Amino acid sequence: MAIVDITVIPVGTATPSVSDYVAEIHTFLKAYNGDIKFQLTPMSTLIEGDIKELLEVVREIHELPFQKGIQRVCTNIRIDDRRDKENTMERKLQAVQDKL
């Protein structure tokens, strides 16, 4: 299981706010009905699941602002793909909490 941290930055919007675009991304992610997990953070979105599926989801998320007429989109991704043991968002957080 992999975790992807994704930030989609539409360039050339009418306002500095991008919350409408973020909301659209989360509406899109809800359609996966539990096949992938996702979590909104103040600066990005985390998605968790099979790496092949996540990479396809990243491509689709990147395309969403273009479908709204945006002509330029910058997308940043970080991938944590750990294969020696189960890798989940909750497990990673719990590992730190256990040490605090």
Automatic annotation (TrEMBL):
Superkingdom of the source? Bacteria
Q: Which Pfam families match?
A: Thiamine_BP (PF01910)
Q: Provide the Gene Ontology terms for cellular component.
A: cytosol
> InterPro entries this protein is in?
MTH1187/YkoF-like (IPR029756), Thiamine_BP (IPR002767), UPF0045_domain (IPR051614)
Q: Which SUPFAM superfamilies match?
A: MTH1187/YkoF-like
- Can you give the residue ranges of the Thiamine-binding protein domain? 4-97
- In which family does this protein belong, per the annotation? Belongs to the UPF0045 family.
Q: Which PANTHER family match?
A: UPF0045 PROTEIN ECM15 (PTHR33777:SF1)
Name under which the protein is recorded:
MTH1187 family thiamine-binding protein
